[in-house]
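Dear Dr. K.,

Following up on our conversation at the group meeting, I've run the structure prediction for Pectinesterase inhibitor domain-containing protein from Fagus sylvatica. I'm pasting the input sequence below exactly as I used it, so you can double-check it against your construct before we proceed with anything downstream. Let me know if the numbering doesn't match what you have in your notebook.
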Amino acid sequence: MEPNNNNQIPLLISLFSLIFFNYAQAVCVPRNSSTHLLQRSPPPNSPPKPSPSPDSAPTLSMDPSIKKICETTDNPDLCVSSIAPFLSGKTDPISVLEMAINAATQHAKNAMAMASKLSAVPKATTDSANAPLFEDCKEMYSDALDNLQSAMDAIPSRDIGTINSMLSAALTDFVTCEDGFSGETSPLSPYDDKGTKMASNCLAIASLIK
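The predicted structure tokens came back this morning:
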């Protein structure tokens, strides 16, 4: 019995149509959908963005008006650096003088702390012979603190005479401490040298007050 070819033709047509439909559906899938997602995702091996360098951070510069006032002193660089921690946002001579006195006051406190430490050294150490001199310097630094405070107290009333005399006395206190060592360099010499210059700067700034 011969096979009925007429019955096989519709089956082959149906099978061919199904294959063609699946192929066409696959071709019509958007090819750029996965590509688009990949473009949004960062490359797996991409290096992290560098963080800003500390050196690139903005730095606060001294106001030109304060620099100009400091330039009238004998130690302009010390003037600028010493008052930097005490900036108040004001740039007039009176305000700058207050900053300079505050800086000198802090320095005198540091000097007195060092003198106290040195005067407490054991007797067997090399510096034990200078212990009495360190004690004298402690008194000088204490006097300097009092004189600096008196100068500060005279600023609101613009008592220039008192301001100058108290600042001059503070300068003398540092010099007197250094003179006690008879020209020899002591551990307190850097404190006395800087304190003398800071007091001198205060006097120069005070001369600008009208």
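Two things stood out to me. Residues 64 and 204 are 18 Å apart (CA to CA). The chain has eight helices and no strands.

Best regards,
J.T.
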